[in-house]
Specification:
41% of the residues lie in helices and 17% in strands. It is of the alpha/beta class. The chain is globular.
Length: 274
């Protein structure tokens, strides 16, 4: 049985040139990253038709950032692996990239971002890669500075793969200690392959957590396939961002959710770079 990546080397070492290339070219990894990123965006509960400035923590080669761009958002990505960021640069993504250790905190001014996502990254902070690394302190530094740079009322969503219940408790407790409210949303809890854990953090006081996805007669991988086909159409120019957002709004109306009316700004991308 192979060991978890976190046991093999620090993230900046594990995600070297070879692993960075393999990670970005693996169809299964791409599929999972896209699914998790789209779900994280949904859990952010951003206003419809309003481009946001978002933070992508542990952005890697930009697979999650590409989802943010396709939905019309401006984003800034942080990652500790220079090899992963090099791949992101080669892919000519729209986001701004920063080489940084998220365990040392966020170097941004107060209230700068409308939300944050993180896909499969925060669990790395549960491991001490050197004698001066204290997992609890590093997690608290991350969440404390993240809370400060988020606008009030916004959310941060962390998808992660904990090794055990102790790691879950450590991560959640440090987030709450930093001032966040919220909790865990576990999608497909009874499925070995489809199960995903999201930590939904809120800055605007106690709010009811979103409902987790269940497998009641649905095939989660079919939904992923349909989203991938839509994204392919966007990238090939066959489906515009405007049309994609209109379809998304129609879907949310059918779900009984409140959706803003269409306007001339629907799907319009924020001008200029960050």
């Amino acid at each position: 049985m192979s060991r978890r990546p976190e046991h093999q080397a620090p993230p900046e070492v594990y995600y070297g040139v070879d692993e960075a290339c393999k990670y970005t070219q693996n169809s299964r990894v791409i599929e999972v990253q896209e699914k998790c990123s789209e779900r994280a965006l949904e859990l952010l509960a951003l206003p419809d038709d309003t481009p946001a400035i978002l933070l992508d923590l542990g952005c890697g080669s930009g697979l999650s950032g590409e989802i943010l761009s396709n939905q019309g958002h401006t984003w800034v990505g942080l990652d500790i692996s220079s090899a992963m960021l090099d791949v992101a640069v080669e892919r000519e993504l729209d986001g701004d990239l920063i080489l940084a250790d998220i365990g040392q905190g966020m170097p941004f001014r107060a209230g700068m971002f409308d939300g944050a996502i993180s896909i499969s990254a925060v669990q790395w902070l549960c491991y001490a890669d050197s004698s001066h690394h204290k997992p609890g302190k590093r997690l608290y530094q991350l969440f404390m500075t993240l809370y400060a740079c988020l606008s009030r009322g916004s959310r941060a969503v962390f998808q992660f793969y904990p090794e055990n219940d102790a790691q879950v408790e450590l991560i959640v407790s440090q987030a709450m200690r930093a001032g966040f409210t919220g909790g865990l949303v576990v999608d497909y809890p009874n499925s070995t392959k489809a199960k995903k854990i999201y930590l939904v953090l809120m800055t605007g006081g106690a709010t009811q957590l979103p409902k987790a996805l269940q497998e009641e007669g649905t095939n989660p991988m079919q939904a992923v396939y349909q989203r991938r086909e839509q994204l392919k159409k966007i990238r090939s120019g066959k489906l515009s961002r405007h049309d994609w957002i209109v379809k998304k709004k129609e879907r949310r109306r059918k779900q009984g959710k409140e959706v803003r009316s269409d306007s001339k700004y629907t799907g319009r991308k924020r001008s200029g770079r960050f």
